[in-house]
Amino acid sequence: GNRLLPKFSLDATVFTKLCESWKKFLVLKLLGKRIGFLALRDKLKSQWKCSGGFDLMDVDNGYFLITFDFEDDKNKAIKDNIDTTLVWILFPNLGMVYYDDSVLLTIALAMGTPLRVDMNTANLVRGRFTRVCIEIDLTVLVGKFYLNGKWYNVEYEGLHILCASCGCYGHL
């Protein structure tokens, strides 16, 4: 072989033994906008209310590894996954005739709990798409809607890695 390009392979039993120590970790992936490390830690403490403590380690690309002092806390965190979030939804190519807060909030109600219409949309500053802030259930993403004889797509800002058709994460 080439000394400048060394190749290695591990025996399967060695690899299995290496993997054992990683089973104690919980992997967390953040979707959408990034949040600071300390803010995330505080949010998780508040959400999980663990009996013991936990350690949070940032890995990369929005991934975190978490270890818990108690297995029960880990199991509770797994069961207590966060299925809702606030997100801006976009309706590309929606005719500007529909740029009315009551109409947009009614349409957005089919995707989640609408909170407000973006100021640029409300003030007719932009015409390519509308933006509405909603609270959504991440397990039930609506991909399109039908309005007056035409289908319109729904885009979830910052959640492009979630498939609106099947709800799966990370496939194309």
TrEMBL record:
- Pfam families from the xrefs? DUF4283 (PF14111)
DUF4283 domain sequence ranges = 19-79
Query: What protein am I looking at?
Result: DUF4283 domain-containing protein
Origin organism is Glycine soja (Wild soybean)
